[in-house]
Structure formats: C-alpha cells, structure tokens
Amino acid sequence: MSGVPHNPDGQPLTTDQAFININQTADPGLRYYAAWWLGKMRICQPQAIDALLLALEDETDRSPDGGYPLRRNAVTALGKIGQGNDRVVLALINCLHCDDYYVREKAAQSLESLGDSLAVPPLINLLEGGVAAAVQDSDKPHLVQPYNAILEALGTLGNAELATIIGPFLDHDVPQVRNAAARAMYQITGEAQYAERLVKVLAHDQLQLRRAALMDLGAVGYLAGATAIANTLAENSMKLIALRGILEHQISFEIQSGEDTSPISDDSRQVMELMDSLL
C-alpha cells in the first residue's frame, strides 16, 4: 500500500487507506469522504479519533457560503465513534461556537448521540435570548441557531428543570421548532400532553411536517401514538421506522421494569400487528 491519497474508483475503501486520505491535505474531496467513511463504518480506533479531531481545525475546505464541509463530516463521525471519550465531547462542545451553522447543528446532534450531560450548559447557552432571539438569519436560509437540534439534544440529555427554558419554544412561529420543543418537553417531563402535540401534527396538510412528527414520536417511543402513526398519510416505510422505535422503547421499558413475564406483552403485540398491517 502506498502512503499517498487514493481514490478507490468504486472499490471499497480500506481502513488503512481512509487513514491516509484523511491525514493528507492535497485533496480535500478525499479527506471529506474519508471522514464520512470512518463514521459510517464505526472505526473507533484511536487513530481515527485523532484524525477526525484534527479535521475539526481545518480551514482549507470551504463552501461558497463560507462553511466547513470537512468539519461537518468530522463532527458527525465523532458522534458515532466517540462514546466515553472526554476529548471528543469537549471538542464537539467547542464546535457549538463555530461560525458555520451546520457545524453547530451537527455538533448538537452528535453530543445528543454521545449522551454526555456535560453538553447541557453550553447547549442552553445557544438558547440565550429565548424565543425573541430565535429569528431568521438575515443572510441565510435558516434561523440564527439550529434550534431543532439544540432542543432535541436538551430533551435527551436534560431533565425537568429545563422545562422553563424549553417550554416557551412551544409557541415559536416555526412549526419544526414547536415540534422539537414538544418532543423535548415530553422527554424531560413524561407528560403525554406534549407528545399529543406531535400526534396532532400527523394530520397536518404538509407531508414534510407529518414525516417529521412520525420520526419524533418514534424517537421518544410514544406508545399511545402508535395507531395514529399507522394511519398517517405518509410512506409506509417511514411509519414502520416510527413504529419500530416505539416497539424498541416498549420492549426496553418492559425489561427494565421487570414486566417482561411473557415473551410478548399485549402492548408490544399491538405495535407489531400495526407494523404487519403496513407490510
């Protein structure tokens, strides 16, 4: 194997070649692809972590709008392979201050995936100013912060004490932000009223919002929404993904609570029957 960057020309990339590609700087495209590949393949070797952390400092791979494509891929990859690594968590927290909106968005998502509560205070800082500050960026096709990703991460990592911070976003002008707030509020409080907000979105006239609500309900495992999910006007493939999420949450709950006295509970069987009806 040579120590030079290499395009596999349709052939599978090897781990050794991915390390070569991500550590070189002559070809940004190969480096970008290698960062994605290391995360996709869950290459957890220290060499991969080191290379991806170094990629977070890259200044050469810039998009026309001034963003950092390589950093975005590196952030996403680290969210897949950086479990239990304090260096990764701290580096991703630092990425929350990047001037690239999409780096901040992916950093919030990756920190959520890693499940480290150390990320909660810096995520809260991004909500400074509350709903009043959550406005459209004057020069970009998005809000000033990736509020969806931030709220969802806080829902996963936080607790009920964050309700006063997250709750006001239930009244934001942007439907996706309201949905993210509802999802987070359900996660931190367990109150069905917030998940029911997402169930109502399943009847929205915009398919994109119905799809998003499906994924949110599946992600939080809202069992009472299973029938509504199955009846949503959306692709069966997406409904199946949402129902699978609910089923996984239900089985996990039954195991943890000691209620798995029978092979399949009535609740789990009901979800499985709904899934069968969509096949």
Automatic annotation (TrEMBL):
GO terms for molecular function: oxidoreductase activity. Gene3D superfamilies: Leucine-rich Repeat Variant. Keywords: Antenna complex, Phycobilisome. It holds the Pfam family HEAT_2. One of its GO terms (cellular component) is phycobilisome. SUPFAM superfamilies: ARM repeat. This is HEAT repeat domain-containing protein. The lineage of its organism: Bacteria, Bacillati, Cyanobacteriota, Adonisia, Adonisia turfae.
